[in-house]
Design goal:
The complex is a heterodimer of chains A (about 120) and B (about 425). With about 120 residues, chain A is an alpha+beta fold. Chain A has 2 helices and 10 strands, in the order βββαββββαβββ. In chain A, the strands form 3 sheets. A 5-stranded mixed beta sheet of chain A has the order 8-5-6-10-9, with no helix packed on it. In chain B, a hairpin with a 2-residue loop joins β15 and β16. Chain B has about 425 residues and is α/β, with parallel strands linked by helices. In chain B, about 20% of the residues lie in helices and about 35% in strands. The longest helix of chain B has 19 residues. In chain B, the strands form 7 sheets. In chain B, strands 1, 2, 5, 6, 7, 8 and 20 form a 7-stranded mixed beta sheet that branches. A 5-stranded parallel beta sheet of chain B has the order 10-18-11-12-13. Chain B has a 5-stranded mixed beta sheet with strand order 23-21-28-25-26, with no helix packed on it. Classes of the chains: A alpha+beta (about 120), B alpha/beta (about 425). At the A-B interface, β5, β6 and α2 of A face α2, α3 and α5 of B. The complex binds flavin-adenine dinucleotide (FAD). Flavin-adenine dinucleotide binds next to α1, β6, β9, α3 and α4 of chain B.
Chain lengths: ~120, ~425
């Protein structure tokens, strides 16, 4: 099977050509070694990082930006968002603080992406 | 009057990198001035990831990227002022600013680095028939409301323009429960990075209407409905109308370098980039005034802003130390297929070992060649699988390749 896809691991967006058969998976067009890994995963079990904000009190702003420590299955994004939207914190928070461990058993944590 | 070696105007990623680099290159008296309540600039509202792959070799969010530079600047003890608006800069390198504590102040710099960033084109800049009810705002404004203040500007949203900020906001508002009905782009290709088309639109089944525009706005005080039409060039084609009931229309129709201060100082502006005309040292037409980041030309990747601003910081430091060599320079000229080239002029004596030219193409190209000419002679060709206006291109030339050039380097896309 032959497939063209755009690598979205980073903003460069390499145009990948994937040739797969039962025992081989050949990727061309990538500029780094993450391209082939992405292509294989995207075609089998796609995942995405999530970034959002949560409520924070006693800070210069009302919202604290957060990110997932890794990627979550694409199909679970909306469910993870529901969990994120339940969170609320009081300043001070440090960039990198773990705010919620192992969200919905994905093995991924919710962490603060700035100090406030 | 207070004296500084270098005054940096604007505390976004460009200003931070330029100030840090100037200080690292031996300049002690550096002052960074920012009008906002904190340093970091536009990155602070860009909470998504994708920043820093080139600079830090890891993928950071906008606020994380900013925080690293802000911490470094503070650790180095570089002086900065917040809540302070620069109101005027002058060719004699005096800088006027105003803030609540000090009032109106004038200071003297030996060199100035301009890093004021850019602003978004707004509804006034485009012709859409109909009223201007509430609910029409730029994508960046909606981003600030949502990510900094926690306020979602609409529940049923349409986006005009496929610039990155609009695409990012399509995903962001979807995640927060809004229904994004579509994105219309006047051009036959997207104005944003392909990665954002995939991750922000395709992932959420948000349609992208290429060669379409909003042809009518309906609503008295509040936005009620928009009409979207296919276009022939710029003209809506009758009979292709689609109606969308919306309560918000986001505009992602382009960024323009913020050069009010520069123009008032008599700095010459390139009418293609809308930024200053600069030489290889990022020095503008006014000696000792430098420019970098989005105020110079609009960047899509902050990593390039940082790299450019570091070069400008080094050059400004050299200027202070009297190490910038004046003399003959040659020009860089865009030919067919190239929209602009930065820098505009090059004095080869100020280059270390290579010259890097940055440019944007004027359309999407596949399997083409970029040709570089020195005084009319072909000096380099590069094969390109894919070129798009949304993705900045660069050409690296070794000093040895360009040492004989007298008049100009010209670059073209050969189809
Ligand atoms: C709304 C918006 C969203 C963006 N989103 C993304 C994105 O998602 N991803 C991405 O890679 N790039 C994005 N960009 C591009 C981004 O701006 C650049 O990548 C980079 O961060 C720009 O850095 P800068 O320092 O040149 O400008 P900015 O970060 O805009 O910094 C300019 C600073 O100068 C200050 N300033 C301006 N005038 C004055 C004055 N007279 N006195 C004092 N201070 C002043 C401003 O307050 C601001 O802090 C976005 C740009 C905009 C406008």
């Amino acid at each position: 099977m032959k497939k063209s896809m755009i690598c979205i691991v980073c903003p460069i967006g390499c145009h990948l050509e994937v040739e797969s058969s039962s025992d081989e998976f050949v990727v061309t067009g990538n500029q780094c070694k993450r391209g082939p890994v992405y292509a294989q995963k995207e075609l089998t079990s796609p995942t995405r990082p999530i970034t959002s904000t949560v409520k924070i009190e006693n800070a210069i702003y009302n919202r604290l930006p957060i990110k997932t420590s890794g990627e979550v299955p694409k199909a679970k994004i909306m469910d993870v968002m529901k969990e994120i939207n339940k969170l609320s914190f009081k300043a001070p928070i440090k960039c990198g603080d773990v705010l919620l461990k192992n969200v919905l058993n994905t093995g991924v944590d919710i962490i603060a992406s700035r100090s406030l | 009057m207070n004296n500084y070696d270098i005054v940096v105007v604007g505390g976004g990623s460009a200003g931070l990198a330029a100030a840090i680099e100037a200080n690292k290159n031996g300049i002690e008296k550096v002052l960074l001035i920012e009008r906002d309540i904190e340093l970091g600039g536009i990155l602070l509202q860009c909470i998504h990831n994708g920043f820093g792959l080139k600079v830090f070799k890891e993928e950071l969010t906008g606020p994380e990227y900013a925080e690293r530079f802000v911490n470094e600047l503070k650790d180095m003890g570089i002086e900065f002022k917040l809540n302070t608006l620069v109101t005027k800069i002058n060719p004699d390198k005096t800088v006027e600013y105003a803030n609540a504590e000090e009032g109106f102040i004038q200071i003297q710099a030996k060199a100035i680095i301009l890093t004021m960033g850019c602003y978004e084109r707004s509804a006034g800049a485009i012709n859409i028939p109909g009223n201007r009810p509430s609910g029409i705002l730029t994508a960046g404004t909606a981003q600030k409301y949502l990510n900094i203040d926690g306020y979602l500007v609409g529940k049923r949203v349409f986006i005009l323009g496929s610039g990155d900020i609009g695409l990012i906001m399509a995903r962001r508002m979807t995640l927060e429960g809004a229904k994004v009905l579509g994105v219309a782009e006047l051009q036959p290709y997207s104005g944003g990075l392909t990665r954002n088309i995939v991750q922000c639109l395709e992932d959420y089944d948000i349609p992208l209407y290429l060669s379409h525009t909003v042809s009518k706005i309906v609503g008295d005080s509040k936005l009620e409905k928009i009409v979207v039409s296919k276009v022939d060039g710029f003209t809506p084609i009758p009979g292709t109308e689609m109606e969308f009931e919306v309560d918000a229309l986001l505009l992602s129709i382009g960024l323009i370098p913020e050069n009010g201060l520069s123009e008032a100082a008599g700095i010459l502006i390139d009418n293609r980039t809308k930024g200053a005309i600069v030489n290889e040292s990022y020095e503008t037409s006014v000696e000792g005034i430098f420019a970098c980041g989005n105020v110079l030309h609009v960047h899509d990747l902050v990593d390039f802003v940082t790299a450019e601003s570091r070069r400008a910081g080094v050059a400004a430091a050299k200027y202070i130390k009297n190490e910038l060599i004046k003399g003959k320079s040659f020009e860089t000229k865009p030919l067919k297929g190239i929209n602009y080239i930065v820098p505009n002029k090059v004095n080869i004596d100020n280059l270390d070992d290579k010259l890097e030219l940055f440019m944007r193409v004027d359309a999407v190209y596949k399997d083409v060649v970029i040709n570089v000419y020195g005084d009319g002679t072909l000096i380099k060709t590069m094969k390109k699988k894919h070129l798009a206006p949304a993705e900045m291109e660069s050409v690296k030339l070794k000093v040895s390749e360009i040492s004989n050039i007298k008049d100009c380097i010209e670059i073209e896309v050969l189809v």
